[in-house]
Amino acid sequence: MEIIDILLAASFWEAAIRIATPLIFGVLGALVCERAGVLNLGIEGIFTAGAMAGWMAVWLGAGLWAGVLVAALAGAFFGLIHAILTVPLGLSQHVSGIGVTLLATSLSYFTYRTALPDVSSPPRIEPFRPLDIPFLSDLPFIGQALFSQTAMTMLALVLVFVTGWVLYRTPLGLAIRAVGDNPSSVEAQGLSVYGLRIGAVVVGSSLMALGGAFLTMSAFDAFFFGMINGRGWVCIALTVFASWRPGKALIGALLFGAFDAFQVRLQTEVGAFLPSQVFLMMPYILSIIALIVVARKADYPKALLVPWFKGQR
Amino acid sequence: MIRFEPRANPGPVLTYGVPVIAAAIAILLAAIPLALADAPIIRAYGLMISGAFGSVFSISEMLTRATPLILTGLAAAIAFRAKLWNIGAEGQLYMGAMAAVAIGSGVIDGPSWIMIPVVMIAGAIAGALMLIGPTLMKTRLGVDEVVTTLLLNFIVLLFVQMMLEGALKDPMSMGWPQSEPIIDSAVFPPLIERMRVHFGLIIALVSAIALAVFVKRTVWGFEIRAVGENAAAAKFAGISVTKTMILVAALSGGLAGLAGVAEVAGTRGYLATDLSPGYGYAGIVVAMLARLSPVGVIASALFVASVFVGADSMSRAIGVSSYLADLIVAMALLCVLIGGFLTRFTVHFDRKTAG
């Protein structure tokens, strides 16, 4: 009955939501890009850039929310590079995305090393503190699991609703979805395909960068090399799993977080029998399984990966 | 208004000139981070050049670096030709290295002319299988190979770690996670006395030329190009897209696996989790700089290798972070992408006119 005990503990759900938070940012960002027809494999590097830029801003003396803004701007910058290469120039989204990941990662590492040439242990900042909301944080179970997270987790949850509302309840969202399905129809209505796509990629990339910023400014309090560790790629898989819907993205990220939190606890129970690497592999294997499960019925945006040029019918 | 018009025939000057210019621009752009790091810019460039070409030793180091890069570059080139987006060369490299170590560290023994081909074949098969899996998932189940190959890089690295702490652990390594060394008869001989550049370079060069001939002169090569250009048309013409994809996967994964073999049997002598500083990912840049041409891969791998070796040596001399090399390589990739666009299109700046 140990498994039931694990699943019923508030601390377990607290960990699950914490693990899910960067993924929520990342999947939201990826789905905004992909809904507009652009695959953004820059995500892994944009996570790194957001993590580094946000952390460094705070380390240099900025406030935490200013750090979040700096991270978002860093994401927007790399998103703009990807957008220019893939939208008006129509270049391969795969290759451009990998290029942006290499650029953002190496620029982040170079900047970090240049600013801190010889530190042995990464310097720490004062990160976001767990919230202490009167009444709510004192509720049994949910008070600990949800209302004692940090403000960035709350931001992620709010952004799920904002993204869903914009995509499905506003003319802008309609246009973004249309530009990822049938760009020529959008042009026929007098809207700018390039403008919509570039805007979506830039906004989506800032969301991704917030996922990175959460890691250095909320989950941990320092930046270190290799800390993103494939989280960006996991988000790309979860986006397919979520069939490009913000609500399902939240569920997917939470399921993923729950599973990851569960395997950590399982490891302490049965870790003596299996090498630790088996548990560390789980998130990646789970992502691949998630892809296989939905592959048959995945309803990709119809114009995803397809470049569109002005004056083309 | 800016207008793009397709160019009818780019011609050889543009085709071969653009990658060179892109690489040069990336090198020049490195002046910005150098200036931000307060480094003496001219001296830094001088140190990079002498670090990569200044002596027989530095050229040997550069060629040693180029060896795995040629192989992973070829792996990316052949896969991207067929629009099989293999981003998993890093994992395939490690699987190849692990297979080479598993079979070449004393399980069997024999003369070099048997052992060297045996570890090469083992590594190539391991790398190939590593990509055939995701390719079958793509063709049979419709699972996107980009994400699966990317995620497999992480899984493989953890698997290698696990094996190095378990079945492949060297009992003499004092607890350090590394494999037993490759036996002498399986070690790639050096090409120059007392230098690190080794027989793997010959394998890489021969692979590049063989792949070029294969793609240009054989029916299979034609089918690969046809599937890459238009899979639907190729299918209509009676080419089995699935079979072609699996052939490409075997070649691409096999080449990446060979890169791993070359690293353990030629450079390192044993397997550890820091065997590759991202050769798999850098191979993508090498392939793009080469415009996916197998022979071009040789030249672009030499360029990327000299950036790495040159920046490493510059970094040791004046203390600028060696991540500068990764930065230059990433910028070169983006520059060559833009350059590729400019060879296919001409840019017109129109004055706004009525209508």
Care to describe what's here?
Chain A: Keywords: Cell membrane, Membrane, Transmembrane, Transmembrane helix. The complex is a heterodimer of chains A (313) and B (355). By secondary structure, chain A is mostly helical. Chain A is built from 13 helices and no strands. Chain A has helices at 2-8, 10-35, 43-59, 64-86, 93-115, 142-145, 151-169, 171-181, 183-188, 193-219, 231-241, 246-270, 276-295. In chain A, helix 2 (10-35) runs antiparallel to helix 10, helix 4 (64-86) packs antiparallel against helix 10 (193-219) and helix 7 (151-169) packs antiparallel against helix 12 (246-270). Chain B is mostly helical and 355 residues long. Chain B has helices at 11-29, 31-36, 41-53, 56-81, 89-104, 112-141, 145-165, 200-217, 219-229, 231-236, 241-268, 279-289, 294-318, 323-344; strands at residues 2-6, 345-349. In chain B, strands 1-2 form a two-stranded antiparallel sheet. In chain B, helix 4 (56-81) runs parallel beside helix 8 (200-217), helix 5 (89-104) packs across helix 11 and helix 9 (219-229) packs across helix 11 (241-268). Chains A and B meet through helix 5, helix 11 and helix 13 of A and helix 7, helix 12 and helix 14 of B.
Helix fraction of chain A, binned, reads 55-70%
Largest sheet of chain B: 2 strands, antiparallel
Straight-line distance between termini of chain A: 62 Å
Q: What would you say the CATH architecture of chain B is?
A: Orthogonal Bundle
Q: Can you summarize the main beta sheet of chain A? A: none
Q: Helices and strands of chain B, in N-to-C order?
A: EHHHHHHHHHHHHHHE
Count of discrete alpha- or pi-helical segments spanning 4 or more residues of chain A: 13
The count of helical stretches of chain B stands at 14
Low-pLDDT regions of chain A: none
- Number of structurally distinct domains of chain B: 1
- Estimate the strand proportion of chain B: under 5%
Keywords (chain B): Cell membrane, Membrane, Transmembrane, Transmembrane helix
Membrane topology (chain B): Multi-pass membrane protein
Organism (chain B): Thalassospira povalilytica
Subcellular location (chain B): Cell membrane
